Amino acid sequence: MALALEQVGVAFGGFRALTDVSLSVNAGDVVGLIGPNGAGKTTCINVLTGFQRPSSGRVLLDGRDVSALPAHRLRRAGVARTFQAGRLFGGLDVLDNLACTGVGLGLRRAESERQASDLLGWMGIAPLESRPAAGLPYTDERRVAIARALMGDPAYLLLDEPAAGMSEAEANDLAALIRRIAHDRGIGCLLIEHNVGLVLSVCSDVVVLDGGRVIEHGDRNVILGSRAVREAYLGAHTEAA
Ligand SMILES: Nc1ncnc2c1ncn2[C@@H]1O[C@H](COP(=O)(O)OP(=O)(O)OP(=O)(O)O)[C@@H](O)[C@H]1O
């Protein structure tokens, strides 16, 4: 069981944002996707979630070609995401943010509220239930966005820079949460992060993009030993990571 890009290209007019990109996320694994600004990471997530149609290549969900499916269909098929900005419904409280999403996914209201409440408890943020989403501190907003993405029990979760703006301690808590999501719930996760230390501590497998192409792919040792990665992205961070 896997969610995969197969030789995907994306062109915006004459600009090629992705060229021949292949990557795969297995159920229960956490795969990292790193690269410098503008490398094409978010475009990969957009393609995997139906927000962007590939210009060439295929998106495969458990072996089925889903390249033409729109975002709402892919979400119902089990592919969930978070965004760089939380994108919560600011006027609703936290429970309703999750419950509305569940209803949108086809759950009955009562069932959706129960699932929302269970999820917030599982994540250790039950006290936030009745707080308005608009007033949440940044880290809580991120956690609620992840909880919302878990509504409907997706098979895959794509996280776009979830640790941006977090302290080291908060990022460590986030790392523990991502491990639990993968191990306890069996969800395949794709993690985009500029915090390379976080990626290397959580991910069994890391894909490195530069200029819209995959320039390296492998485990922590492969990434840390890669000259191409050092030159393209890690630079002075290599030893610290
Ligand atoms: N809708 C679009 N139209 C035109 N160009 C786009 C569009 N979306 C992305 N791009 C360009 O494609 C390239 C890849 O963008 P993308 O956001 O995927 O990179 P990224 O690796 O996620 O960057 P960052 O780390 O800064 O978020 C960038 O040069 C970006 O400007």
Explain how this protein is built.
The chain is of the alpha/beta class. The protein has helices spanning about 40-50, 70-75, 95-105, 110-120, 140-150, 170-185, 195-200, 220-225, 225-235, 235-240; strands spanning about 1-10, 15-25, 30-35, 55-60, 65, 80, 155-160, 190, 205-210, 215-220. The strands form two sheets. It has a six-stranded mixed β-sheet with strand order 6-7-8-3-9-10, with helices on both faces. Strands 2-1-4-5 form a four-stranded antiparallel β-sheet, with helices on one face. The radius of gyration is 18 Å and the shape is globular. The model is unreliable at about 235-240 (pLDDT under 50). Adenosine-5'-triphosphate (ATP) binds near residues 12 and 43.
Task: Please give a quick description of this structure.
One of its GO terms (molecular function) is ATP binding. This protein has 241 residues and is of the alpha/beta class. The chain contains ten helices and ten strands.
